[in-house]
Design a protein that fits this description.
Elements lengths: L1 H15 L7 E12 L15 E10 L5 H5 L4 E10 L7 E13 L4 E12 L18 E17 L2 E13 L10 E13 L20 E11 L9 E13 L4 E12 H13 L14 E11 L3 E13 L7 E10 L4 E10 L2 E12 L1
């Protein structure tokens, strides 16, 4: 639980450690949809159409910072999410998230990206709820996305919004089982605006951004558990180095290499060799270490950035998992050269670890 709380508090502090605005707006959305059948062994968890509510407060950026104008004056805020999965094994989830809203099409189309911490009412229990192979822990990460049409001040301060949503709940394999649940569907709601229509401070021109190639060194760590339920949480240590090149104010491209020491994988190899000799024979001394190369992209907002990477293993003796992995993470620049962050590393739809990182950019 403590790691999820830290993740949420970290994200909130990074997101809301900005200037406060004099007005904003509330919005309330009803969501209704379906569970995405991303792996065959969650079929028994899909018995109805999940529904719920998202209640949010949004702070408006003013335009007094350069990044406000570059990103078309986004909002940032906090949300409360309730979701009923309409399934006796899954129960209900409650979540608190932080979010950004980005606007398009003359600010009529809004895209929200959100992350936080969730609690489920009915987690996996080997005796009482062994069929819930989606939520192995009571506390987990919460992610959701909204893409909807938004019309403020439709009747006085009240407006409406309607569109699409996507939610994701999992614990990043901090504890097994962890199939996770993804839902998608429609949302419909109202918004209530505090104050008069907002007047943004227009930026006449934005200076061109140039920067040489930078060298990055990152250390990531945490704990995870193998897919064997009850095998225990083990530490991991991931070391990476990469170069990046800024291609403008918003973006940088990355190319690098990475070394993985994952203790849960080491113990899983020994377990497989002993427990399932009738399957493909495995030497218990098989090297658990992995080496990869990766390419990535970093989206700079202010001191916060969003990092995406796609990697392929060039050294890996244990062949059970796929050779390609992806990473999605948040970074915060404490100084222009020192950063910290959190990321989710996964192989396709299968999460491997929530990574806590610190690094330098030289």
């Amino acid at each position: 639980m403590s790691k999820h709380v830290f993740w949420f508090l970290l994200f909130c502090s990074l997101t809301f450690g900005q200037e406060k605005t004099t007005n904003g707006y509330f919005d309330l959305n009803y969501i209704h949809g379906n569970i995405l059948n991303h792996v065959p062994d969650i079929n028994h968890l899909i018995t109805g159409h999940p529904q719920g509510l998202i209640l949010s407060y949004n702070f408006k950026t003013t335009g007094n910072k350069e990044w406000h104008s570059i990103y078309n004056y986004p909002d940032y805020g906090v949300s409360f999410l309730f979701q009923d999965f309409e399934n006796q094994y899954l129960g209900k989830n409650f979540a608190i998230n932080a979010h950004y809203n980005f606007y398009f099409l003359n600010r009529n189309l809004m895209f929200r990206i959100s992350q936080g911490i969730a609690m489920t009412t009915n987690p996996y229990d080997k005796e009482l709820n062994f069929k819930n192979n989606a939520f192995g822990s009571r506390f987990m990460s919460s992610n959701y996305f909204l893409l909807h049409y938004q019309k403020p001040y439709f009747v006085g301060p009240i407006g409406f919004n309607a569109g699409l949503f996507f939610t994701h709940f999992s614990n990043g394999r901090i504890k097994s089982p962890n199939r996770g649940i993804n839902t998608y569907g429609i949302n419909l709601g109202l918004n209530y605006n505090v104050g008069e229509p907002f007047k943004y401070q227009k930026v006449d021109s934005i200076a061109k951004f140039k920067e040489p190639i930078r060298f990055n060194f990152t250390f990531r760590t945490g704990v995870n558990e193998s897919s064997v339920v009850g095998s225990g949480q083990k530490p991991f240590y991931h070391f990476s180095t990469h170069v990046d090149k800024r291609i403008g104010r918003k973006s940088a491209l990355q190319l690098g290499t990475e070394l993985f020491f994952t203790q849960s994988l080491k113990e899983y190899i020994a377990y497989r060799a002993i427990a399932f000799p009738e399957l493909e024979p495995i030497d218990p001394e098989t090297d658990y270490r992995r080496v990869s190369v990766f390419a990535g992209h970093e989206l700079f907002i202010n001191k916060l950035s969003i990092e995406t990477q796609l990697g392929i293993y060039v050294y890996k003796q244990f062949r059970e998992e796929m050779d390609i992995y992806q990473r999605l993470g948040l970074k915060y620049y404490i100084t222009p050269k020192l950063f910290t962050g959190v990321a989710l590393k996964s192989h396709g739809a299968k999460a491997e670890a929530i990574e806590w990182g610190i690094g330098v950019r030289l």
